[in-house]
Design goal:
Number of helices: 6
Bound molecules: 5-O-phosphono-beta-D-ribofuranosylamine
CATH superfamily of the largest domain: Formyl transferase, N-terminal domain
Structural class: alpha/beta
Radius of gyration: 17 Å
CATH class of the largest domain: Alpha Beta
Helix content: 25-40%
Shape: globular
CATH architecture of the largest domain: 3-Layer(aba) Sandwich
Oligomer: single chain
Strand order of the largest sheet: 3-2-1-4-5-6-7
Order of helices and strands: EHEHEHEHEHEEH
Distance between the termini: 14 Å
Strand content: 15-25%
Largest sheet: 7 strands, mixed
Number of domains: 2
CATH topology of the largest domain: Rossmann fold
Length: 192
C-alpha cells in the first residue's frame, strides 16, 4: 500500500458559475486523506451562483469577480491565486472562457469537466443535442484546458446509456452522478 500520510496536498482553486454540485463533491473529496488536493478558494463570476453557499458551509474563502471587463477580471483572479499560492485549478460549471495568457500561467494545471463524450458536443446544451441525435450513449469528460473551448487533452471519460425514456432532465441527472466519480479520479490521475 502506498504511504499517503503526510503527503502535501496541492493548493487548489475551484471556479464556478452556478449550482456547484461538482464543487461540493470536490470539497468532500479534498477532505479525504488520500486526496491530492486541498481547496483554498472558490472563484465565481456570478454573485448569485448557488454553489457559493459551500464557501460558508465548508469555511473556504470565496471571491466573486465581475467579468464585464474580461482582461481586468483575469488580472484580478491571477493576483488572488498567486497570493493564495494556488497551483491547480478545477473548473466546475464555470461559464467564462479563460484567455491564452491566463492559461499560460497555469500550463497543464487547469482541468474542466464537460457533460458530453468529447469531442462530441462542445459548448452548451449537450444533453438536448445527444437526445435529438438519438445517440445511444452520452457521458462526461475531464480534460485539460487550452485556449479553445472544450478542446484540451482528454484525461478521462465515462459513458452513460441513453434510454428511450430519457429527457434532458433525467440525462443531466445521470451524467452528473458520473461526473461526481470522474472528476476526483481524473484529479488523482493528473496529480499522482
Ligand atoms: C456540469 O454538468 C459540468 O459538466 C458542466 O457544468 C455543470 C456544472 O454543474 N461544465 P454543477 O454546478 O457542478 O452542479
Amino acid at each position: 500500500m502506498k504511504k499517503l500520510i503526510g503527503l502535501k496536498k496541492t493548493r487548489s482553486a475551484v471556479f464556478i458559475s452556478g449550482t456547484g454540485t461538482n464543487l461540493k463533491n470536490l470539497i468532500n473529496f479534498s477532505h479525504k486523506i488520500n486526496s491530492p488536493i486541498s481547496i483554498k478558494i472558490i472563484i465565481s463570476n456570478n454573485k448569485k451562483a448557488k454553489g457559493l453557499k459551500y464557501s460558508n458551509q465548508y469555511k473556504i474563502k470565496k471571491q466573486i469577480i465581475n467579468f464585464k471587463n474580461h482582461k481586468f477580471a483575469e488580472k484580478k483572479i491571477l493576483k488572488i491565486l498567486f497570493k493564495e499560492k494556488i497551483n491547480f485549478i478545477c473548473l466546475a460549471g464555470f461559464m467564462k472562457i479563460l484567455s491564452k495568457n491566463f492559461i499560460k500561467k497555469f500550463k497543464g494545471k487547469i482541468l474542466n469537466i464537460h457533460p458530453s463524450l468529447l469531442p462530441k458536443y462542445k459548448g452548451l446544451n449537450t444533453h438536448a443535442r445527444a437526445l435529438q441525435n438519438r445517440d445511444k450513449f452520452s457521458g462526461c469528460t475531464v480534460h485539460l484546458v487550452n485556449s479553445k473551448l472544450d478542446s484540451g487533452k482528454i484525461i478521462m471519460q465515462e459513458k452513460v446509456k441513453i434510454t428511450k425514456k430519457d429527457t434532458t432532465f433525467s440525462l443531466k441527472r445521470k451524467v452528473l452522478k458520473k461526473e461526481h466519480k470522474l472528476y476526483p479520479a481524473a484529479i488523482k490521475k493528473i496529480l499522482r
